């Protein structure tokens, strides 16, 4: 299927970035935690447990009275939601005919009971679903959200719930003088890449370590004289002091070399790290001897291959701090 452009935005709810399904009113047939698993749903015919066919998703019992079923997800990356996907893969005679999505923004770590008592904002009104399908719904909201609530009408099964968007970090929870300028969770974003054949370049700047090769960025094998690259708009204008290029899990397919370039406008580039030899399955750390202000970063790998993570440690400039803080404030009132 042709996927909407906004599905290229990271999944703010994914377990891989720290999301959690904190509550569901019912999960008799299949556990709520399946909703945010990062991998694609699977189906194994004739795999029955003591409650029936085992599904890789969230499935509630058949309702015999009016009502709806709900699940609340705490976003691993609070941010502006651009769209959601309600994936009913492999649910055919037992998918919900309708779904709706709401959101709320709250500080701290409220309990499910406290969350349920809040006033929620509708992101997706009650909308029809198709069975065994990805059901995408674009969202028009400029606010920063911390939790979303999926309602299914009246009951049934959903394989995955994807909440795509742009992370917006809370400056009150960060040391803006020393943090990862290229981190997705801090608001950095991929603006371009030469190739994403095996996996998304968003993985490069995702939280935590990659646990397997598939959690990094890997390109197809090149058969020409070129090289692959990724460009990133940083969390804000800053001065980097240390770069980390991590090839963990990439053994026979790590790049041979890499370089870093910086820019203040995304068009005019200067050298940050010269072309440097890399080793397979290794976290490389490079102090930057002549740090300069930059707002964009370009990673070039030679000629192709896979990288697990890219980190760029440093501090925001005065202008970077101002823009970083204003982005958060604007999304709070959006």
UniProtKB/TrEMBL annotation:
The keyword Hydrolase applies. Pfam families: Allantoicase. This is Probable allantoicase. Its EC number is 3.5.3.4. It catalyses: allantoate + H2O = (S)-ureidoglycolate + urea. Keywords: Hydrolase, Purine metabolism. GO terms for biological process: allantoin catabolic process; purine nucleobase metabolic process. The keyword Hydrolase applies. Belongs to the allantoicase family. It comes from Amycolatopsis sacchari. GO terms for molecular function: allantoicase activity. Residues 18-167, 187-315 form the Allantoicase domain. Pathway: Nitrogen metabolism; (S)-allantoin degradation; (S)-ureidoglycolate from allantoate (aminidohydrolase route): step 1/1. NCBIfam families: allantoicase.
